[in-house]
Design goal:
With 137 residues, the protein is mainly alpha-helical. The protein has one domain: Regulator of G-protein Signalling 4, domain 2. Helices cover 61% and strands 0% of the residues. The chain contains seven helices and no strands. Helix 1 packs across helix 2, helix 2 (19-33) packs antiparallel against helix 3 (39-51) and helix 4 packs across helix 5. The chain is elongated, with a radius of gyration of 21 Å. The N and C termini lie far apart (43 Å). Keywords: Signal transduction inhibitor. Residues 1-110 form the RGS domain. One of its GO terms (molecular function) is GTPase activator activity. It comes from Nothocercus julius.
Amino acid sequence: ADPLGRAQLLDFLKKEFSAENLSFWEACEGLRHGEQARIAAIVHDIYQQFLAPGATRWVNIDSKTMERTLEGIKTPHRYVMDDAQMHIYMLMKKDSYPRFLKSELYRNLLAEAVIPPETKRRVFPFMRKQRHSSPSP
C-alpha cells in the first residue's frame, strides 16, 4: 500500500528482470477496480501486454491457470484475471519479495523511514500499561 515501498520494490524487480510481475498484478488491480464500460478493453490490453504469445512483458503462469484465463476472457469481466493474478502474487510472495526484504535497497528504505514517535518508545504498543486502571467488578 505504500507508494514509496512499491516504487522501491519495482526498482528491485527491474534489476532482477521480473518487473513485469508487479506490473501485471497492478494491471489486474486496475481491471478489478476500473470503469465497467472499459472492462473488455482493459482485459484485451492485459492479455496483449502480459499473456499473449510474444507479449512484450510476458509473465510466466502455469498451463492450467492460462487455460482458465483464456477461457474466461471469451466473456470478459472484472475478475477474469484473478487466477493469473494470484499465481503471480504467490510467485512474488515466495520468491522475489523475500529477496527484496534482504536487499540493500530495502535496508536503505528502512533506514530512511519516518517512524511515528509513539512506536519508537515501545515495540509492542498493545503491551503499554494503562495509566489509570479501574478495579475489576
